[in-house]
Amino acid sequence: MLLTFYACLLWLSCSGLWTIQAKEPNADESIVSNHRILAPSNTDFALDLFNYLVASAPGKNVLISPVSISMALAMLSLGARGHTRAQLFQSLGFNLTQIPEAEIHQGFRNVHRLLRESDDSLEMGNTVFLNQSLELLESFSADAKRYYELDALATDFQDWAGASRQINEYIKNKTQGEITDFFLELDSPDTLILVNYIFFRGMWAQPFDQGSTREQNFYVNETTLVRVPMMMFQWNEIKYFKDQQLPCELVQLDYVGNSTAFFILPHPGETGVIVAALSRDTIQRWSDSMTISEMDLYIPKFSMSEAYDFRGLLKNISLADLLTHQENFSGITQETQLKLSKVVHKAMLQLDENSVQAAAPTGVTRKAESEPLTMHFNRTFIIMIFDKYTWSSLFLVKVVNPT
Protein backbone atom coordinates (compact mmCIF):
# COMPACT_ATOMS: atom_id res chain seq x y z
CA MET A 1 0.00 0.00 0.00
CA LEU A 2 1.39 3.38 -1.02
CA LEU A 3 1.06 6.76 0.65
CA THR A 4 1.82 9.81 -1.48
CA PHE A 5 2.61 13.05 0.36
CA TYR A 6 2.23 16.39 -1.42
CA ALA A 7 2.68 19.86 0.01
CA CYS A 8 1.15 22.62 -2.08
CA LEU A 9 1.21 26.31 -1.36
CA LEU A 10 0.79 29.73 -2.88
CA TRP A 11 2.36 33.00 -1.90
CA LEU A 12 0.98 36.20 -3.37
CA SER A 13 3.04 39.12 -2.14
CA CYS A 14 3.36 37.63 1.35
CA SER A 15 5.75 38.04 4.26
CA GLY A 16 6.70 37.60 7.93
CA LEU A 17 9.49 38.43 10.47
CA TRP A 18 11.43 36.37 13.00
CA THR A 19 12.08 38.49 16.03
CA ILE A 20 12.73 37.35 19.55
CA GLN A 21 10.66 40.13 21.08
CA ALA A 22 7.52 39.48 19.03
CA LYS A 23 4.30 38.54 20.76
CA GLU A 24 0.75 38.47 19.51
CA PRO A 25 -1.52 41.03 21.21
CA ASN A 26 -4.11 39.34 23.47
CA ALA A 27 -2.52 35.92 22.90
CA ASP A 28 -2.83 33.39 25.72
CA GLU A 29 0.55 33.39 27.50
CA SER A 30 0.62 29.60 27.81
CA ILE A 31 0.14 29.27 24.05
CA VAL A 32 2.86 31.83 23.33
CA SER A 33 5.28 30.14 25.75
CA ASN A 34 4.57 26.73 24.31
CA HIS A 35 5.21 27.64 20.69
CA ARG A 36 8.39 29.51 21.68
CA ILE A 37 9.84 26.12 22.62
CA LEU A 38 9.53 25.09 18.96
CA ALA A 39 10.83 28.32 17.45
CA PRO A 40 14.60 27.65 17.58
CA SER A 41 14.31 24.14 16.11
CA ASN A 42 11.83 25.23 13.46
CA THR A 43 14.03 28.13 12.36
CA ASP A 44 17.18 26.00 12.27
CA PHE A 45 15.39 23.31 10.24
CA ALA A 46 14.16 25.92 7.76
CA LEU A 47 17.58 27.49 7.21
CA ASP A 48 19.39 24.14 7.00
CA LEU A 49 16.91 22.87 4.42
CA PHE A 50 17.17 26.07 2.38
CA ASN A 51 20.97 25.99 2.53
CA TYR A 52 21.01 22.40 1.28
CA LEU A 53 18.62 23.10 -1.61
CA VAL A 54 20.56 26.19 -2.73
CA ALA A 55 23.89 24.35 -2.58
CA SER A 56 22.50 21.37 -4.51
CA ALA A 57 20.88 23.50 -7.23
CA PRO A 58 23.40 26.17 -8.29
CA GLY A 59 22.07 28.53 -10.89
CA LYS A 60 18.44 27.58 -10.23
CA ASN A 61 15.51 29.15 -8.42
CA VAL A 62 14.62 27.76 -4.98
CA LEU A 63 11.20 28.22 -3.36
CA ILE A 64 9.95 26.39 -0.26
CA SER A 65 7.60 26.84 2.71
CA PRO A 66 9.52 25.44 5.69
CA VAL A 67 6.65 25.76 8.18
CA SER A 68 4.44 23.76 5.83
CA ILE A 69 7.06 21.00 5.52
CA SER A 70 7.70 20.93 9.29
CA MET A 71 4.03 20.53 10.12
CA ALA A 72 3.54 17.78 7.55
CA LEU A 73 6.53 15.79 8.86
CA ALA A 74 5.44 16.30 12.47
CA MET A 75 1.95 15.07 11.63
CA LEU A 76 3.35 12.00 9.85
CA SER A 77 5.26 11.15 13.03
CA LEU A 78 1.92 10.43 14.70
CA GLY A 79 1.62 7.38 12.45
CA ALA A 80 5.31 6.47 12.40
CA ARG A 81 6.73 3.68 14.47
CA GLY A 82 10.18 2.55 15.58
CA HIS A 83 13.24 4.03 13.90
CA THR A 84 11.16 6.03 11.39
CA ARG A 85 9.51 7.97 14.21
CA ALA A 86 12.88 8.78 15.77
CA GLN A 87 14.25 9.92 12.41
CA LEU A 88 11.34 12.26 11.80
CA PHE A 89 11.87 14.07 15.10
CA GLN A 90 15.63 14.12 14.59
CA SER A 91 15.20 15.70 11.16
CA LEU A 92 13.05 18.43 12.71
CA GLY A 93 15.70 19.12 15.35
CA PHE A 94 13.86 17.73 18.39
CA ASN A 95 15.42 15.55 21.07
CA LEU A 96 12.69 13.46 22.69
CA THR A 97 14.80 13.09 25.83
CA GLN A 98 14.62 16.87 26.29
CA ILE A 99 11.11 17.68 25.10
CA PRO A 100 8.10 15.34 25.34
CA GLU A 101 6.46 14.30 22.07
CA ALA A 102 3.06 15.58 23.22
CA GLU A 103 4.58 19.00 23.87
CA ILE A 104 5.97 19.11 20.31
CA HIS A 105 2.57 18.35 18.80
CA GLN A 106 0.88 20.86 21.10
CA GLY A 107 3.43 23.44 20.01
CA PHE A 108 2.65 22.87 16.33
CA ARG A 109 -1.06 23.09 17.14
CA ASN A 110 -0.45 26.48 18.74
CA VAL A 111 1.68 27.67 15.81
CA HIS A 112 -1.12 26.66 13.43
CA ARG A 113 -3.69 28.48 15.54
CA LEU A 114 -1.62 31.65 15.91
CA LEU A 115 -0.77 31.77 12.20
CA ARG A 116 -4.41 31.38 11.24
CA GLU A 117 -5.79 33.83 13.80
CA SER A 118 -3.11 36.50 13.45
CA ASP A 119 -3.54 36.95 9.69
CA ASP A 120 -6.82 36.72 7.79
CA SER A 121 -4.95 36.25 4.52
CA LEU A 122 -3.38 32.92 5.57
CA GLU A 123 -4.95 29.49 5.12
CA MET A 124 -3.18 26.24 5.91
CA GLY A 125 -4.20 22.68 6.60
CA ASN A 126 -3.87 18.96 5.94
CA THR A 127 -6.15 16.51 4.15
CA VAL A 128 -5.88 12.79 3.54
CA PHE A 129 -7.50 11.26 0.46
CA LEU A 130 -7.70 7.54 1.10
CA ASN A 131 -8.94 4.66 -0.96
CA GLN A 132 -12.44 3.54 -0.12
CA SER A 133 -11.03 0.20 1.04
CA LEU A 134 -8.81 1.87 3.64
CA GLU A 135 -9.63 3.27 7.06
CA LEU A 136 -7.49 5.46 9.27
CA LEU A 137 -6.66 4.07 12.69
CA GLU A 138 -8.69 5.85 15.33
CA SER A 139 -5.59 6.77 17.33
CA PHE A 140 -3.94 8.48 14.34
CA SER A 141 -7.15 10.10 13.13
CA ALA A 142 -7.99 11.57 16.55
CA ASP A 143 -4.50 12.94 17.24
CA ALA A 144 -4.03 14.28 13.70
CA LYS A 145 -7.39 16.01 13.92
CA ARG A 146 -6.65 17.44 17.34
CA TYR A 147 -3.18 18.77 16.65
CA TYR A 148 -3.17 19.39 12.88
CA GLU A 149 -6.88 19.67 11.98
CA LEU A 150 -6.58 16.77 9.54
CA ASP A 151 -9.52 16.11 7.23
CA ALA A 152 -10.03 12.69 5.65
CA LEU A 153 -11.92 12.12 2.40
CA ALA A 154 -12.75 8.76 0.84
CA THR A 155 -11.58 8.49 -2.77
CA ASP A 156 -11.99 5.90 -5.50
CA PHE A 157 -8.43 5.50 -6.77
CA GLN A 158 -9.55 2.82 -9.23
CA ASP A 159 -11.09 5.74 -11.13
CA TRP A 160 -8.03 7.97 -11.25
CA ALA A 161 -9.65 10.53 -13.56
CA GLY A 162 -12.43 11.04 -11.03
CA ALA A 163 -10.04 10.99 -8.08
CA SER A 164 -7.82 13.55 -9.77
CA ARG A 165 -10.80 15.85 -10.34
CA GLN A 166 -11.80 15.50 -6.69
CA ILE A 167 -8.33 16.36 -5.39
CA ASN A 168 -7.77 19.20 -7.85
CA GLU A 169 -11.14 20.75 -7.00
CA TYR A 170 -10.32 20.51 -3.31
CA ILE A 171 -6.94 22.24 -3.75
CA LYS A 172 -8.49 24.86 -6.03
CA ASN A 173 -11.09 25.75 -3.37
CA LYS A 174 -8.52 25.85 -0.56
CA THR A 175 -6.24 28.19 -2.54
CA GLN A 176 -9.01 30.50 -3.75
CA GLY A 177 -8.74 29.19 -7.29
CA GLU A 178 -5.02 29.92 -7.65
CA ILE A 179 -3.72 26.32 -7.80
CA THR A 180 -5.39 24.18 -10.46
CA ASP A 181 -4.54 20.88 -12.15
CA PHE A 182 -2.13 19.96 -9.39
CA PHE A 183 -2.59 16.19 -9.79
CA LEU A 184 -2.30 14.98 -13.37
CA GLU A 185 -1.09 11.39 -13.04
CA LEU A 186 -0.34 8.79 -10.42
CA ASP A 187 2.18 5.97 -10.37
CA SER A 188 -0.12 3.50 -8.62
CA PRO A 189 -3.93 3.26 -8.55
CA ASP A 190 -3.83 1.97 -4.96
CA THR A 191 -2.68 4.96 -2.95
CA LEU A 192 -3.34 7.14 0.09
CA ILE A 193 -2.50 10.79 -0.58
CA LEU A 194 -1.70 13.42 2.03
CA VAL A 195 -2.09 17.01 0.84
CA ASN A 196 -0.51 19.69 2.98
CA TYR A 197 -1.26 23.23 1.85
CA ILE A 198 -0.56 26.81 2.83
CA PHE A 199 -2.07 29.78 1.05
CA PHE A 200 -1.14 33.38 1.84
CA ARG A 201 -2.39 36.41 -0.01
CA GLY A 202 -1.03 39.56 1.57
CA MET A 203 -1.31 43.27 0.85
CA TRP A 204 1.69 45.58 0.94
CA ALA A 205 1.47 48.15 3.72
CA GLN A 206 2.89 50.59 1.16
CA PRO A 207 1.99 49.24 -2.30
CA PHE A 208 4.11 49.78 -5.37
CA ASP A 209 2.82 52.20 -7.99
CA GLN A 210 1.46 50.09 -10.84
CA GLY A 211 1.96 52.96 -13.27
CA SER A 212 5.71 53.02 -12.57
CA THR A 213 6.42 49.39 -13.57
CA ARG A 214 8.73 49.26 -16.59
CA GLU A 215 10.64 46.61 -18.55
CA GLN A 216 14.27 46.42 -17.43
CA ASN A 217 17.24 44.06 -17.58
CA PHE A 218 17.74 41.28 -15.04
CA TYR A 219 21.19 39.67 -15.02
CA VAL A 220 20.87 35.90 -14.55
CA ASN A 221 24.64 35.49 -14.72
CA GLU A 222 27.65 37.13 -16.39
CA THR A 223 26.55 36.07 -19.87
CA THR A 224 22.74 35.91 -19.64
CA LEU A 225 20.22 38.67 -19.17
CA VAL A 226 16.44 38.65 -19.43
CA ARG A 227 13.87 41.43 -19.65
CA VAL A 228 11.44 41.64 -16.74
CA PRO A 229 8.76 44.10 -15.60
CA MET A 230 10.51 45.99 -12.81
CA MET A 231 8.35 47.51 -10.08
CA MET A 232 9.50 50.88 -8.77
CA PHE A 233 8.92 52.19 -5.27
CA GLN A 234 9.81 55.69 -4.00
CA TRP A 235 9.47 56.19 -0.28
CA ASN A 236 11.23 58.10 2.45
CA GLU A 237 10.71 55.49 5.17
CA ILE A 238 12.12 52.21 3.92
CA LYS A 239 13.89 49.92 6.38
CA TYR A 240 17.40 49.41 5.00
CA PHE A 241 20.68 47.88 6.12
CA LYS A 242 24.06 47.57 4.44
CA ASP A 243 25.88 44.70 6.11
CA GLN A 244 29.53 45.35 6.90
CA GLN A 245 30.14 41.75 7.99
CA LEU A 246 28.53 39.96 5.06
CA PRO A 247 28.63 40.98 1.37
CA CYS A 248 25.04 42.13 0.99
CA GLU A 249 22.48 44.84 1.57
CA LEU A 250 18.81 44.41 2.31
CA VAL A 251 15.44 46.05 2.80
CA GLN A 252 12.53 45.05 4.96
CA LEU A 253 9.03 45.55 3.54
CA ASP A 254 5.94 45.24 5.70
CA TYR A 255 2.51 43.94 4.78
CA VAL A 256 -0.91 44.72 6.11
CA GLY A 257 -1.32 42.44 9.11
CA ASN A 258 1.43 40.61 10.94
CA SER A 259 3.99 39.85 8.26
CA THR A 260 7.22 41.28 6.94
CA ALA A 261 9.73 40.29 4.26
CA PHE A 262 13.50 40.63 3.98
CA PHE A 263 14.69 41.26 0.41
CA ILE A 264 18.42 40.49 0.44
CA LEU A 265 20.72 41.55 -2.40
CA PRO A 266 24.09 39.75 -2.22
CA HIS A 267 27.11 41.25 -3.92
CA PRO A 268 27.71 39.68 -7.36
CA GLY A 269 28.85 36.09 -6.99
CA GLU A 270 28.33 36.04 -3.22
CA THR A 271 24.88 34.42 -2.95
CA GLY A 272 26.32 31.16 -1.62
CA VAL A 273 28.19 33.02 1.09
CA ILE A 274 25.01 34.75 2.26
CA VAL A 275 22.88 31.59 2.24
CA ALA A 276 25.55 29.67 4.18
CA ALA A 277 25.67 32.46 6.77
CA LEU A 278 21.92 32.50 7.40
CA SER A 279 21.13 31.78 11.03
CA ARG A 280 18.89 32.99 13.80
CA ASP A 281 21.68 35.29 15.00
CA THR A 282 22.18 36.76 11.52
CA ILE A 283 18.49 37.43 11.06
CA GLN A 284 18.22 38.97 14.53
CA ARG A 285 21.23 41.21 13.80
CA TRP A 286 19.64 42.36 10.55
CA SER A 287 16.34 43.08 12.26
CA ASP A 288 18.04 45.09 15.02
CA SER A 289 20.24 47.02 12.57
CA MET A 290 17.63 48.38 10.18
CA THR A 291 17.55 52.13 9.68
CA ILE A 292 14.91 54.28 8.01
CA SER A 293 16.10 55.53 4.62
CA GLU A 294 14.80 57.48 1.65
CA MET A 295 15.07 55.15 -1.31
CA ASP A 296 14.30 54.36 -4.93
CA LEU A 297 13.63 50.63 -4.87
CA TYR A 298 13.34 48.36 -7.92
CA ILE A 299 12.06 44.77 -7.57
CA PRO A 300 10.99 42.43 -10.41
CA LYS A 301 7.34 41.53 -10.90
CA PHE A 302 7.13 37.81 -11.59
CA SER A 303 5.49 34.44 -10.98
CA MET A 304 7.41 31.32 -9.97
CA SER A 305 6.57 27.67 -9.39
CA GLU A 306 8.90 25.01 -7.98
CA ALA A 307 8.38 21.36 -7.05
CA TYR A 308 10.66 18.99 -5.14
CA ASP A 309 10.67 15.23 -4.73
CA PHE A 310 11.96 14.96 -1.18
CA ARG A 311 12.75 11.24 -1.16
CA GLY A 312 16.39 11.87 -2.08
CA LEU A 313 16.56 15.03 0.00
CA LEU A 314 15.25 13.34 3.13
CA LYS A 315 18.36 11.17 3.28
CA ASN A 316 20.30 14.33 4.02
CA ILE A 317 18.02 15.36 6.88
CA SER A 318 18.21 12.07 8.78
CA LEU A 319 15.32 10.22 7.10
CA ALA A 320 17.28 7.37 5.57
CA ASP A 321 14.37 4.96 6.10
CA LEU A 322 12.40 6.72 3.36
CA LEU A 323 15.27 6.47 0.91
CA THR A 324 15.69 2.74 1.47
CA HIS A 325 11.93 2.10 1.56
CA GLN A 326 12.25 0.80 5.13
CA GLU A 327 9.83 3.34 6.57
CA ASN A 328 7.31 2.21 9.16
CA PHE A 329 3.98 4.06 9.04
CA SER A 330 1.95 1.21 10.48
CA GLY A 331 0.20 3.64 12.84
CA ILE A 332 -1.74 5.41 10.07
CA THR A 333 -4.07 2.72 8.70
CA GLN A 334 -4.93 -0.90 9.36
CA GLU A 335 -2.76 -1.68 6.33
CA THR A 336 0.56 -2.36 8.04
CA GLN A 337 2.58 -2.26 4.79
CA LEU A 338 1.76 1.40 4.09
CA LYS A 339 4.69 3.09 2.31
CA LEU A 340 5.42 6.58 1.09
CA SER A 341 5.42 6.45 -2.72
CA LYS A 342 6.12 10.17 -3.18
CA VAL A 343 7.18 13.03 -0.95
CA VAL A 344 6.54 16.09 -3.08
CA HIS A 345 6.59 19.74 -2.05
CA LYS A 346 5.17 22.20 -4.58
CA ALA A 347 5.44 25.94 -4.11
CA MET A 348 4.07 28.84 -6.12
CA LEU A 349 5.00 32.50 -5.85
CA GLN A 350 3.58 35.63 -7.39
CA LEU A 351 5.20 38.97 -6.66
CA ASP A 352 3.36 42.06 -7.85
CA GLU A 353 2.50 45.65 -6.99
CA ASN A 354 -0.51 44.54 -4.96
CA SER A 355 -1.95 48.03 -4.91
CA VAL A 356 -5.33 48.78 -3.37
CA GLN A 357 -6.04 51.29 -6.15
CA ALA A 358 -4.80 50.98 -9.70
CA ALA A 359 -2.02 53.45 -10.42
CA ALA A 360 -2.37 54.98 -6.98
CA PRO A 361 0.28 57.65 -6.44
CA THR A 362 2.90 56.24 -4.08
CA GLY A 363 5.89 57.90 -2.49
CA VAL A 364 6.97 61.42 -1.68
CA THR A 365 7.74 64.65 -3.47
CA ARG A 366 11.43 65.36 -3.23
CA LYS A 367 13.48 68.47 -3.39
CA ALA A 368 15.82 68.68 -6.34
CA GLU A 369 18.90 68.36 -4.16
CA SER A 370 17.78 65.17 -2.39
CA GLU A 371 19.88 62.10 -3.16
CA PRO A 372 17.98 58.98 -2.14
CA LEU A 373 19.56 55.56 -2.00
CA THR A 374 18.89 53.30 -4.97
CA MET A 375 18.57 49.52 -4.90
CA HIS A 376 18.10 47.48 -8.06
CA PHE A 377 17.16 43.85 -7.49
CA ASN A 378 18.35 43.09 -11.01
CA ARG A 379 20.51 40.05 -10.18
CA THR A 380 20.20 36.97 -7.95
CA PHE A 381 18.52 37.84 -4.66
CA ILE A 382 16.92 36.18 -1.64
CA ILE A 383 13.48 36.64 -0.08
CA MET A 384 12.90 35.55 3.53
CA ILE A 385 9.35 35.63 4.85
CA PHE A 386 8.60 35.15 8.54
CA ASP A 387 5.55 35.46 10.75
CA LYS A 388 6.03 38.05 13.49
CA TYR A 389 4.42 36.20 16.37
CA THR A 390 5.34 32.56 15.87
CA TRP A 391 8.78 33.12 14.28
CA SER A 392 7.65 30.66 11.63
CA SER A 393 9.46 30.68 8.29
CA LEU A 394 6.57 30.91 5.85
CA PHE A 395 8.72 31.07 2.69
CA LEU A 396 12.37 31.06 1.72
CA VAL A 397 13.21 31.99 -1.86
CA LYS A 398 16.29 32.32 -4.04
CA VAL A 399 15.49 34.17 -7.26
CA VAL A 400 18.00 33.46 -10.02
CA ASN A 401 15.78 33.95 -13.07
CA PRO A 402 12.39 35.68 -12.58
CA THR A 403 11.23 34.58 -16.03
Automatic annotation (TrEMBL):
One of its GO terms (molecular function) is serine-type endopeptidase inhibitor activity. Residues 47-402 form the Serpin domain. It is found in: Secreted. The keyword Ribonucleoprotein does not apply. Its main location: secreted. Keywords: Glycoprotein, Lipid-binding, Secreted, Signal, Steroid-binding, Transport. It comes from the Eukaryota. Residues 1-22 form the signal peptide. GO terms for cellular component: extracellular space. It holds the Pfam family Serpin. InterPro entries: Serpin_CS (IPR023795), Serpin_dom (IPR023796), Serpin_fam (IPR000215), Serpin_sf (IPR036186), Serpin_sf_1 (IPR042178), Serpin_sf_2 (IPR042185). SMART domains: SERPIN (SM00093). The keyword Transport applies. PANTHER family: CORTICOSTEROID-BINDING GLOBULIN, SERINE PROTEASE INHIBITOR, SERPIN. Major transport protein for glucocorticoids and progestins in the blood of almost all vertebrate species. Belongs to the serpin family. This is Corticosteroid-binding globulin. It comes from Rousettus aegyptiacus (Egyptian fruit bat).
